[in-house]
Predict the structure.
Amino acid sequence: MIQYSNYYVSIVSFLMNRFTLLLTQLLTVGVVFLVSLHLIGVAPARSQLPAATEVQQAIGAEPGSVVLDGKTLFQIRSNFGPLSALQRANLANEQLTTVANNSQISPESVRAENAQGITLIVAGKKNVHITIITPEDAKAEGQTQAALTKDYLAAIRSSLITFREQRSVENILRGVGYAILATLLLWLVVQLLNKLFAGTLDRLKDWLAEYSDRLKNSNRGIFAITPFITVALHFAELGQNVLYLSLACLYLFLIFGFFPWTQGLSSNFWAIVGSTLAEFERAIVGYLPNLFTLVLIVFITREILSFIHLFFKEIKLGNISFPWFYSDWVQPTFQLVRFFVLALALAIAMPSLPGFKSPAFQGVSLVVSALLTLGAASAVSNIIGGFIVVYTRSFQIGDMIKIGEIVGIVLEKDVLVTRICTPKNVVITIPNSTILGSSIINYSTSAKDLKDSTGLVLHTTITLGYDIPWQKVHAVLIEAAQATPEILSNPAPFVLQTSLNDYNVSYELNAHTDCPEQFPAIYSDLHRNIQDKCNEADIEIMSPSFFALRDGNHSTIPENYLPDDYETPGFHIDASKKHPPT
């Protein structure tokens, strides 16, 4: 059963506020989405415009453009005899360029002459032939032959006038003047930007110095933002270089536009920029529905994660509790649930990402999947092992454990590894997959269990001869245990006789302690006290075996435990016994 506290009201209030904020955000996104749909509906669809492709398919000819000085005057869409529309346009371009470069042919001399149902466009006194207009041309354009002739004449005369004006001395001098002004303007802009960037950097450095002093002198926690500012400065420097490069390109193609010989390059540049921006605009407008889906997924995912974070935070604080849910499960469970929520949100959002169905995106996804499959096997094994260790509660932070041959105190339990500090103060990092395949001995579980007052049982074994009464041995060993610090008096130490060997008896001393993390030092003290107490009781420890002649050998007991008048005995020979002759 779930146990609720007085924080329930605050949780409900928090959820209501978040729900209201979510509705407001969704309403805003909905309005933007409706506006974008309107833009999509109003935007002229290319499929609905009168395309020249349909006319081309109807006539069966590839259109050709008549161009002068980089400007398209009109298009020829029909064939004439053996000449295709493209060939007719190429011939017209050659003739028009010849007329334009001949200063003796005035634009007013361009005229139309009718002959056998077709119209000839000629120029000059020598009747330089430029192009012809056929009834098929008028039909292709959807006009009468006379109207189409009038348009051709107006376009050709206007282009010739412009061509001559642009190559006049006055226009060239004007272009030189504009180029000088553009150069000065570029120099002024660069100088202004240099001063702006330099001043901004100086102020930022001064502010960072002041912030660093506050960070050093403040006792309160102030977030160190210097690394982030450094990264931002690198991006600002990159942006400055990109801005200068853009200004240089803009200046160069602006200069090209001032002179007639390079106006074609300038026009092409601006045409490329315009078409790129138009394609970019169409791509953005077309992507708005998918963008709305992504924003909706982000909003919903964020609210779900906020609720999950709040829920697990209340469990950690104890405001919400489950009998079967342990406190050390809170953080890993939260991370696991958050991972699955984010993975589900990503799976739902993937089809709405830009270029999701493109071959490049699919190829990159395949390569990344292969790399993760081949290279992340050990990492996945460690992660699974880490979660199994957490949920099986094999050990906790601060426990004294033994994994394989490694004994130490647990310092950290991570998703991938576990760190243990040995009694020699050596930190060992063990992969969780190794822990999963090894037996774990926990010395601290019983000591930390409030219901279990016995603690950890330490034991050690000594072997003594049959000549020593076992009651005396029991008393001496228990006395040694009681003299050892960190050994509990309740439960009392006890002795077990584990085996009766050929030459000695094995005595196992068992003692309880509630300080398992100190058991190496406790063992050392216990062994020292066993030696002292046995020596005081005149018991010689002959383990595992000790060979001695009792007559003629010094006692193995340390001299400070022997009587002051002790002397090393000599060999005793009993001559009273008669031996049979050999």
